[in-house]
Design a protein that fits this description.
The chain has helices spanning about 1-30, 55-70, 80-90, 100-110, 160-170, 190, 210-215, 225-235, 255, 280-290, 290-295, 305-310, 320-330; strands spanning about 40-45, 70-75, 95-100, 120-135, 150, 180, 200-205, 220, 245, 260-275. Strands 1, 2, 3, 4, 5, 6, 7, 8, 9 and 10 form a ten-stranded mixed beta sheet that branches. By secondary structure, the protein is an alpha/beta fold. Strand 1, helix 2 and strand 2 form a beta-alpha-beta unit. It has 13 helices and ten strands. Helices cover about 40% and strands about 20% of the residues.
Length: about 325
């Protein structure tokens, strides 16, 4: 009898080990892309200005990619912003980038070179339009900018695209009715009051360039009301990607004093080209989603990256590699 029980116990132990191995295999299949060997090589990632959210996000994502794909060399390139980023990827100068949806659509509608090859990887987070003036300023609306010295963003930036559209929507010619300045988030905050009456910024909140001066400089945000966003929508084209929202009171607490700021937002997309290796793009997509909390601890807006909304990369089709990833995690 003891011998029989011993044989039964041994058989059950083997069955248990086999079941455990199968379960482990299924778990690994679920957690990892189909190929166990991580991709290698070199990719170029176009970011943004050094004080902006795109650059900070790119630096943190590169660190996470090194963990998952140690043989992948990720080279970052600073840029003016969304418009330049889209052009770089479309032309092959960069492989991946972040760009606002309105800039992507503007590039496509213009029929620019390589537009048909652009693909989406994931929807990331929203940019908030931030119109900044000194606290004692007499500027209380976009229309009040007439005759003022206004930073409308760097050429080829997403800020320039949005600022120009907002000014035209209130009847202001950006070349004739204001003194336009090509300052971005790198220089605009420091020149406010002395050389600038106002500056536009569009980015995730909070943006380090603004959060830092909030500790020493008195400024406030000019609201962008719903009627103005409606006016933009009526002009058609890429303006359909703008939506009314409120900048949360927690964005810049020392400036907002518990109040939200009416403004508009546009979603950011992680962009690549159709010819990028699907396996590499699948791995990269996985890293972007898996690293949300880690990156979000340093870039607050990155906390909003969400698997449920990540697949909505309109106006771009999903890249095949990104599609593979989303299918693999679909419940």
């Amino acid at each position: 009898m003891s011998s029989l029980l011993s044989r039964i116990g041994g058989r059950r132990a083997v069955q248990g080990a086999v079941a455990g191995a199968v379960a482990l295999g299924l778990l690994l299949w679920w957690l990892l892309p189909l190929s166990e060997e991580p991709p290698g090589g070199t990719i170029t990632f176009s970011t943004g200005t050094r004080a902006g959210v795109y650059q900070k996000y790119g630096e943190l994502l590169r660190t996470e990619l090194r963990k998952d794909m140690p043989d992948l060399d990720v080279r970052l390139m600073t840029s003016a912003g969304s418009q330049e980023n889209v052009e770089r990827v479309a032309s092959g100068e960069a492989d991946f980038t972040i760009a606002a949806a309105d800039a992507v659509e503007t590039y496509k509608l213009a029929g620019r070179p390589g537009a048909e090859a652009l693909r989406g990887v994931t929807r990331l987070y929203d940019d908030y339009v931030q119109l900044v003036v000194p606290s004692a300023s007499d500027i209380h609306s976009v229309a009040d900018l007439r005759g003022k010295r206004v930073a409308i963003g760097l050429p080829n930036s997403g800020v320039r695209l949005i600022a120009t559209r907002l000014l035209k929507a209130v009847g202001i010619d950006p070349e004739e009715d204001i003194t336009p300045r090509a300052d971005g988030i790198d220089t605009g905050p420091d020149r406010l009051g002395e050389e600038l009456d106002a500056f536009f910024w569009s980015g995730g909140v909070p943006t380090d360039g603004l959060r830092e001066i909030a500790e020493t400089t008195a400024f406030r945000f000019v609201p962008i009301d719903e009627d103005l966003v409606t006016e933009l929508h009526e002009s058609g084209g890429a303006t359909r990607y703008y939506r009314t929202t409120n900048m949360p009171e927690s964005a810049y607490p020392t400036v907002q004093n518990g109040a939200v700021v009416p403004t508009m937002a546009v979603s950011n997309l992680l962009v690549t080209r159709a010819d990028l290796d699907p396996r590499l793009t699948e791995w990269l997509t996985r890293t972007v989603l898996d690293s949300r909390d880690g990156i979000g601890a340093h870039v607050h807006s990155a906390q909003l990256v969400d698997l449920r909304t990540a697949i909505y990369t309109d106006p771009l089709e999903l890249h095949e590699g990104a599609r593979r990833y989303y299918r693999s995690v679909k419940p």
